[in-house]
UniProtKB/TrEMBL annotation:
It comes from Trichocladium antarcticum. This is Uncharacterized protein. It comes from the Eukaryota.
Amino acid sequence: MAGIFDFGGRNLVDLYNDVNSRDDVFAYLDHVIANGANLNPAISRETRAELQTIRTQISLLSVTNGTEYVGDLATTPGQHIRRRATLGWPRDAPSKFEVLVNNGHRGRNHPESAALEYWSPFDLLGLFLSKMGGAPNHGTATEANFYLPLAAVYGRFCMWIGLNKRPALTTDGPEDRRQGQGVGDPSSYYQITWDPYSGQFFLGAGLAGYVWPPGRRPGGTGTWKPVVRERRYSLLLGFHNFPGGFTEWTDSPTKRHSRRDTLFGNCAETYAYLEMLGPHYDLAARERMRGIALHRDFAQFPQYTAANIMLYRDSPCMNCKQLLTWAGLTNPRDWHFCPPRQPRR
Ligand SMILES: [Zn+2]
């Protein structure tokens, strides 16, 4: 499509249309690692070594047989969450698993940003793609020619490496259910936050990729669901005026104003805001950042057309607007510039 940028040596539209399997995704990641020195932008040797580490961590947590995804007798059923069996389960511990994080990774955007913990292949994939950047020809990147198609490519990649629903293919029939090979519904949203001035950006996905059969009998996982959600919430400790605290963690503006059980940390914005709106950027820099969220139903389109994908853009939820306020943004209206998303099909 005319005008849309290449990224990692391939046009974003081709990455959307033609990367059509888990193996295709990893072939692209490997191509980036092998050829990074010659890409636009070029990727340093040091960053390529980090990308190799992240790529390995993604594959261990991905379909179809990543060993950390599949687990063993003590960590079944399979989850796209790095985990270990909890000591004392089931008699003396409420959850079958605990989250086992990778060593912290630093984003590449800012030298003072904190190293963040990762345990999900979708978040690691967002980190990988974000470390390849910023945008090529950074002064000229726009939502239309780079950030929107990149967010869509990222969302499709996530649905290829895991989850229970895959992206659409041109060969699908009208009733195809697009059964994925992994577990858990796809993230509701995929988000990109960027700095129009520098072209730096960060991609994130909503919490996804886990299942939590209840109870302590064989097959059950006890309180695994809140364990995962609380760990993700904890990422936000230290984000400006985020109150933190275990007693607050089951409360949120979205939850108070709707029936949605969305807690802080759930959202696709989590890692992106931590990287792009954290206290390591001054207020003037934070105020120029922009972002869009893309609802997962965009993936019903097997081919990229801006008109179709744009129907699935959405504004930050109430929780994320609160995060923007805590980050000191006096004009968060800039962040919800798009009309309400079309009703779900
Ligand atoms: Zn949100």
